[in-house]
Amino acid sequence: MKKQLLFLFILLFTFITSSGFAQSKTVTGTVNDVQGISLPGVNVIVQNTNRGTQTDFDGNFSISVEEGEVLEFSYLGYATQTVTISQDDVINISLQEDAGELDEIVVVGYGTQSKRKLTDNVAKLTSEDIDEVPVPSIQSTIAGKAAGVQISPTNGKVEGGVNIRIRGIASIGAGSEPLYVLDGVPLINSNESNNGSPTNPLLTLSSNEIESIDILKDASAAAVYGSRGANGVVIITTKKGANKKASFNLNYSYGISEPTNTREWLNADEYVELFTEAALNSVDDGVFSTDAEATDYINGIFDFLSNGTDWQNREVDTDWQDLALQNGHVQDASLSVSGGNEATQYFFSGAYNDTEGIVTGNMLERINGRVNVTHSFNDRFRAGMNMSFSRTDIDRIANDNAFVTPLQAIAQPALSPAYTEDGEPNPNTLYPNFLLQDKHAFYNTVIRRVTGRAFGEYRFFDFLKFNSDFGYDLYYQTEDSYTGRLAPFQSTNGEAYASSVGTESYVSSNYFTYSQTFGDDHDLEFVAGMEYNQSKRRFQDVTGIQFPTDDFQTINSAAEITAGSGSETANSFLSYFGRLNYILMDKYLFKASIRRDGSSRFGENVRYGTFPAISAGWILSEEDFLSSSNVLSFLKIRASYGETGNANIGDFAALGLFGGTSYNQRPGITPTQAANPQLTWESVKQTDIGLEYGFLDNRISGEIDYYNKKSDGLIFNQPLPGTSGQASIVRNIGVLENKGVEFVLNTKNVETDDFTWSTNFNISKNNNEVKELPNGADVVSGQTILREGEPLSAFYLVEYAGVDPENGDALYYINGEGSGRETTTNPNEANRVIAGQPYADWIAGLTNTIYYTGFDLNFTFVGEWGASIYNGGGIYQSANADYFDNQSRDQLNRWQQPGDITNVPEARLFGGNGTASSTRYLQDSDFIRLRNLTLGYTLPGSLTENIGLEKFRVYFTGINLLTFTDYDGYDPESTSDAGQGVGVTFYSAPAVKTMSLGVNINF
């Protein structure tokens, strides 16, 4: 009896205890990939039950379970993972990519999509691709990473513009830059510089806050942005929090910078030799009567240039290039914290950048702060805010065309001392001494930027939600300069200039998203909404002169106000959009989108444009006849067609404008712009056909694409007769075509527990052609031409034919090839020919990523082929001693006696022998460059855990460490920032080579 009672007691106790352990509880967590990127839409199922849920947009989930049950996490393209429920209430999962699938989450217009199911061409970069690259511009971090995307810095100035071209140039007169969208907010991207050289408006962004960059390349992807997607769309997504404990990340690096290249110029000995010879050779040309007269004249010039020093004994031999270019530094620091719980997730960050440029007097200092917060009020409603602030302070130098810019110092002869005996900059030089400008003047630009987005999402049902976003972008810039009485060209007692410009943009987006799966075969998503965007700009400036001393440098100390101006302008866009995605049987893919845009910039009756797109894809590897293949892992073909627009023109370009004027000191009104009420959108029609492939469990994968992009109704200024009262009118005229191919190859070369090595290679070819111009007439501008059937802005030059070996005369071809090759010494008798183009035919990138027992190595090579650069300064720098500018050392190879074979004509002072604008100064700019390299080491976890750290990594980063090119100028990527024309360099600073050491700590 006692044994029976004891047995019943034990049985009852076990039942009660088991019942206690089997009680339900709520488990929450976040699902990311191995790179830490949140995965929305992951299926979270309790095995052997019909209970489950999905992760939200930020990868968060919440589910009611019992201990001992098993949660199964599955997501297309990733290996399924299971977790047995224990006492933990929080489960954070990192899903590994499934070698049997090809998948990635990309951000598209107003949503996200699986790369596997995508019918568009979208290139994705993650934070790993752009972290720890010590350059002020985020665009520069993209270089070489995406097929068909060309990134070119204007020059080596810290604030210099960056040219980004996606599948070529889609416009002639309107903007050619892509649309940048930051967390759903279209960014202001207008150059507001007032010193003649552009600044990069996106300098205000810091790479430490960026989670991913998605580049929408084809029209199907970009058409949902309609009127502003003609040049492609770059979607920037910032980092956010997750359902986990707070995690801190500290990154600090310091590096030194130097020019990627310097050139060889004549020293004092060589200068005296060459110019003495040039003077004597000019006797035969009648410039001088006798050798003695020529000698006396040139010796007098040497006396002037030497400024009282003993030039005959070479007392002075100044290296002006060494004064203009310097070693700089780059200092980067950032700190961020992210985390949260089931309801609230947060990300806070701050960053600091201090860059001293390679050009004397050029510096940048920037601070950034960001707050991203998301809160779920209940299962249906969540809201959040993204907010950032930055302040960028730039000490600037003059544009490339100004005598006082440092790089023009290379024109100073080596005989001239840089400083006088008392240590002051020498004021008696051939050209103004930039050191006087550096000491007695300044030009400072400060950019303050605030970007933000407040958003709310309400889910009516599991399949239907509504999003409402309000975005704001404030770009506020001030510029202040002072030129003291001792600065070059200063004829007054000091001059000050001050300007301010504020541009603010509001955008309101409201849209519904319907997403539903019907059975096992039908997957439907539909997005529809509207958007309103308004921008306002206010500018004012003032100039004052006559200051009591150079110690007073602000406008209020000026005795006389000599100039001032102010303006206000605005524009608005009203848009309606829709996108439909349909997937049948997980292998037949369809997408259609349409956007209707209205813009205040166009004529009253043509303000609205409609931009449709359609695309389809077929995952052949899911078909029975391929699914069992042991070699083929993935195969998809896709095709798309779409139309996008371009509205990058002046705010009132269609209107007839009037402005106030003064006549005999009386106010009046005068017409300033001719009206064109029919001015409307540029339209870009693009077709794309692509193939995505994967072999051997996706150890080898990639894409092949062909595209054809035709721009119609090109916007640019057409000249008007003088009798009209206006110089030009803005019209829709012309057709431009870009077509090309892109090839991407990804390989996982080695995959072991201790060693992995992967490679990405991409290459693309783009053919650019002007198809139609008004009346078929050529448009010549400087050294370039627009001509039907030729590339955009092709170089149009007299063809240099070398040197006559009998007498040293420079020769030019009279006619082009096929018409005889007669030559002349008179360039005015020679016909100009199309001799090259400023845009590359081929661009390529090669990235390798290697991990080995704590060590990591990543490096990217970029290459460009088919473009040319015209050296606009060549007629002064490499002119065989035509005037007194110092010469490049190759001019020593000049013709000297009959029979000499050389391309450098005889040195003749004032002879103009070979100095005409010609192909003599045009060169191929093909290059291969090691764009960036990072080598790091991460301490083992067993060591970092003992000191309370999650990660401790030290690294070395190099930018532009190696360049392989036959171009003998400063740099194959550097061009003028002073408007000399596309593809023209003019005393332009070379690119920057940077080497940095850094540390990255997580705790």
From TrEMBL:
- Entry superkingdom: Bacteria
The protein's matches in Pfam families, at most eight in alphabetical order, are given as: CarbopepD_reg_2, Plug, TonB_dep_Rec_b-barrel
Alphabetized UniProt keyword annotations: Cell outer membrane, Membrane, Receptor, TonB box, Transmembrane, Transmembrane beta strand, Transport
Q: Name one GO cellular component term.
A: cell outer membrane
Its record classes its membrane topology as: Multi-pass membrane protein
Q: Where in the cell is it found?
A: Cell outer membrane
Q: Which InterPro entries match?
A: Beta-barrel_TonB, Beta-barrel_TonB_sf, CarboxyPept-like_regulatory, Plug_dom, Plug_dom_sf, TonB-dep_OMP_SusC/RagA, TonB-dep_OMP_SusC/RagA_CS, TonB-dep_rcpt-like
Family that this chain belongs to: Belongs to the TonB-dependent receptor family.
Q: What is this protein called?
A: TonB-dependent receptor
Q: Which source organism?
A: Christiangramia flava JLT2011
Q: What is the lineage of its organism?
A: Bacteria, Pseudomonadati, Bacteroidota, Flavobacteriia, Flavobacteriales
